[in-house]
Amino acid sequence: MPSPSLESVARILHEVRQAREIVVFSGAGLSADSGIPTFRDGSTGLWNNVDPDEVASIEGFLRQPRVVWDWLLQLKHLVDDRSPNAGHRAIARLEEICATKRLTIITQNIDGYHARAGNDDVLEVHGTIHRLRCHRRCGFVAVWQQDAVEPFPCPDCGGPVRPDLVLFGEALDEEVFAAAELRSINADVFFCVGTSFTVQPAARLPLWARSSGATVVEVNPHPTPLSDAVDYSIRSGASQFFSALCARLDHV
Ligand code: APR
């Protein structure tokens, strides 16, 4: 995979050093180096092998809860068995280097790897595979333990319990997404890493950042629909780019 050109890293370095507020907006491609399959990449993309309406939609869950539960549980097992990669660790290092700035992670990923790598300010706009909640939002939440192998009724209200993540056909958590919008609009530098910008409304965040004056940097080995609209479109893997960026920032 090509490493980012030194000239582009140097230009981006300058923008990061001048920035007060930085956002890293991440998608499944960031976790690819951890061995977690992306959703739409070539033949390995998860959605090339299963129908998301069957295994990851609210309509599918209400129709066949066990099918959705089983599919998400196998994804949880994979996430629990793997770990954050050099890209996650470099982004956590970026937070340390930029201690005098505000660095926000806005992630579409449900694996919890940013927090495990050490980032503190993480907005999980699609929720998390590590938590369960009552579908009726009565207030019941619980850590999803691996022995919870099948759907069960809410102990508080009897409603269905489901993973605390956004299934297809569901709205995002309004409070979380409002925070993500605000951070995007206030960002001076907005990194987009490992996303195909396929799913709304999350895919709008970089455009809102750009229209509010942020420098938008895309990091992806392949071009995306946003590549022509960003300031820098870096053809690189996440681990290589963010490791190079932190190495250069460390040599102030
Ligand atoms: N580094 C950076 N980017 C990578 C890497 C890598 N090592 N490997 C792959 N990519 C890129 C691919 O080129 C692709 O553009 O990551 C992107 C992954 O795209 P998707 O699989 O569509 O994942 P994502 O954009 O996160 O999907 C958004 O869709 O299915 C829903 O809720 C799910 O959050 C997900 C949302």
Blueprint of the fold:
Elements: H1 6-18, E1 21-26, H2 52-55, H3 58-63, H4 65-81, H5 86-97, E2 102-107, H6 113-117, E3 122-124, E4 127-134, E5 141-143, E6 161-165, H7 174-186, E7 189-193, H8 205-211, E8 215-219, E9 232-234, H9 238-250
Helix pairs in contact: 1-9, 5-9, 7-8
Bound molecules: adenosine-5-diphosphoribose (APR).
Enzyme class: transferase
GO molecular function: histone deacetylase activity, NAD-dependent; hydrolase activity; metal ion binding; NAD+ binding
Active site: 126 (proton acceptor)
What series of H and E elements makes up the topology?
HEHHHHEHEEEEHEHEEH
CATH topology of the largest domain: Rossmann fold
The average pLDDT value, as a whole number, equals 95
What name goes with the CATH superfamily of the largest domain? Answer: TPP-binding domain
Rounded to the nearest angstrom, the distance between the terminal CA atoms is 27 Å
CATH class of the largest domain: Alpha Beta
| CATH architecture type of the largest domain | 3-Layer(aba) Sandwich
Count of distinct structural domains: 2
**Major beta-sheet overview:** 6 strands, parallel
How many distinct helices? 9
Helix content: 25-40%
What is the gyration radius calculated from CA atoms? 18 Å
Coarse structural class: alpha/beta
Low-confidence stretches: none
Shape: elongated
* Strand count: 9
Q: Spatial order of the strands in the main sheet?
A: 3-2-1-7-8-9
Strand content: 15-25%
Small ligands present = adenosine-5-diphosphoribose
